[in-house]
Write a structure and sequence with these properties.
Elements (H helix, E strand, L loop, with lengths): L9 H15 L2 H18 L2 H19 L9 H13 L1
């Protein structure tokens, strides 16, 4: 927290702004701004952009799963097996 003689950090200002916004708006508000943001992104970026962020997300997800053998099949493995099955 800050006192009256100190400036507020960006982090604290962002947190306070987010809390105030969440108190004043409902789920539909967030859905609408999310949809507008998605539309603006799709207008400003091409397929390569989505491929790149998809690869980065996949790599990050794979890194999260490294070392955690929870008995579940990875998406990569499921996709490969599904592809093998559809080729038959």
């Amino acid at each position: 927290m800050t006192n009256n003689n100190e400036k507020m950090s960006r982090e604290e200002a962002g947190r306070k702004g987010g809390e105030a916004t969440s108190e004043n708006h409902d789920k539909e508000f967030y859905q609408e701004i999310g949809q507008k943001g998605g539309e603006a992104t799709s207008e400003n970026h091409d397929m390569e952009f989505y491929q790149e962020i998809g690869e980065k997300g996949g790599e990050a997800r794979a890194n999260q799963r490294d070392g955690s053998d929870d008995g579940k099949m990875s998406r990569e493995e499921a996709g490969r097996k599904g592809g093998e099955k559809s080729r038959r």
